[in-house]
Amino acid sequence: MLIGIVYNIINILTKEKVDMEKYIVNEKTMYIKAYRDGRSVLSEIGEYGRETFIFKKKPLHIIEDSLFFYHASYKARKISTKMIAEIYTKPPIIVQPGTQTYFFPTHSDRSNDMAWINVHYVNRFHAGEYYDTVVEFDDQSQVSFPVTTYTFNTQYLHGIKLEYCVRAKALKQEMYTQEAVHFDKCRANLFEMLAMYALLEKKV
To answer: Residue 80 half-sphere exposure, CB side, CA atoms within 13 Å?
Structure first.
């Protein structure tokens, strides 16, 4: 109990609190996590290669503000996910199409423990000591989220499924609208193919 209190005090003293009107999710946003400050629920934000900071809004409100900035709504994004990927419970969303901003929630909208995590920055994760999940992101930072590894894995896979469905449908749409198939032209991006081969060579 005492250790937990000391840990919270250290967090409050060391984390930067950002006084700005809005925070907009961008391509470097790795996660937005609920942060308790007394009775208030704020947000701890992690960006790639940057120290975490505290923003004075709940994670869901930041997501809503960001979607509004990108001319969308949270409700519309959830409906899109249901239609595209058939995910109905705690659906992941695309914050901005065309960028690497596929986020999945760890909890339902009603929970004060909700966090939003960018699928593309999750390197690996494992079970913590207190029914939590410790996530290692691509910048090697490790963050604990108050959710079981089973639930986290389910939500993570939902995020991956959403991205796959979006990409697959977009590719099919492109194929259907083409007047003719050109077999002499490679459809895949050359750099993307090389990266895939390099990754496979490392894993085998």
So the answer is: 18
Range of the domain at 190: 2-203
pTM (predicted TM-score)? 0.79
Q: How many domains does the chain have?
A: 1
Q: Is residue 148 a contact partner of residue 133, using CB atoms and an 8 Å limit?
A: yes
Name residue 8's amino acid.
N
pLDDT tens, position by position, 183-200? 455 555 666 666 656 655
Burial state string for 163-192 with b = 16 or more CB within 10 A and e = fewer than 16: bebbeeeeeeeeeeeeeeeeeeeeeeeeee
pLDDT tens per residue, range 10-22: 344 444 454 467 8
